[in-house]
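Students often ask what a holo structure prediction actually looks like on paper. The answer is less mysterious than it sounds. You provide the chain, you provide the ligand, and the output is a string of discrete structure tokens encoding the 3D arrangement of the protein together with PBG.
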Amino acid sequence: MITGKYPNLRLRRSRKYAWSRKLVQESSLSYSDLILPIFLIEGKNKKESIKSMPNVFRYSVDKLSIVIGKAIKKGIPMVALFPYTSPTKKDEKGSEALNPDNLVCRGINFIKKKFKNKIGIMCDVALDPYTSHGHDGLLKKNNILNDKTVEILTKQAVLQAKMGCDVIAPSDMMDGRIGKIRSALDKNNLNEVQILSYAVKFSSSFYGPFRDAVGSKKLLKGDKKTYQMDFRNSDESLREVAIDIKEGADMVMVKPGMPYLDIIKKVKDNFKIPVFAYQVSGEYSLIMNGINKKLIDKSSIKESLISFKRAGANGIVTYFADQIDL
Ligand code: PBG
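The corresponding structure tokens follow.
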């Protein structure tokens, strides 16, 4: 591996000039690597700030023209929609998830009508933005019901796909949901709709600001440890991914991002499939607060994003997508 030794060999030689560093760089970052998450809120002409996520906003559907227009101009290939559901619309079963007139459905309609297929739309499949207890599934006596939840998720996925969602992204971590969703999509003539499975999703403290953004934080009863993965585990992620590929996932996600670069690499090395990283809300806010307090430089954003590419990710879901200059 090592082909010489000092003083003949000097690795600093290739680092001397910018052009030379560029020539030998092993990874790169462009807008085509990024997926932009967007929070939606009811109302008109609204751009509402989110306390726990500086510089990230909740937009009313009519405001999407500007946000999406900018994303397309930059060359961002896809956005991910997340709703802030009004507390009055939340219930035990997350019924609003199946309302064809809910925020996400109206968001999809709006974007597709205005921008056609100039940008992809990805939607979470999970019940947490809609349930009164903040869990991703049905709650019965402190237990999240798996199969009953999957039945609802399947309907949620078909609804979103019928509205025009291009990429269905189940983030709920129920067992067997990818297979059920794939066959339901196919049965409904939606065989061209892709599935990006949040196959490896850890039960993490880094989701805090997101839960605030979708309004589930105060509602959440207990934690999500009975369905999301234990962060002590690594091999288990390979089992999750293998199962999801078999069930029909086109792409997989590892989430959170930076504390799990080892998992991204492991998944990519073991399965040569598209792997995405989610740089989650807590990671975003940590970096953003560090920048705002002048503890770290703005270039830390690019460094954090490149780390995902170096680890083997094909792309990154990041709240920085529309903020950085590349
Ligand atoms: C919900 C969902 C979560 C995130 C994306 N989809 C939170 C959770 O599982 O509690 C987190 C994203 C982020 O923190 O940025 N299923």
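The radius of gyration is 20 Å.
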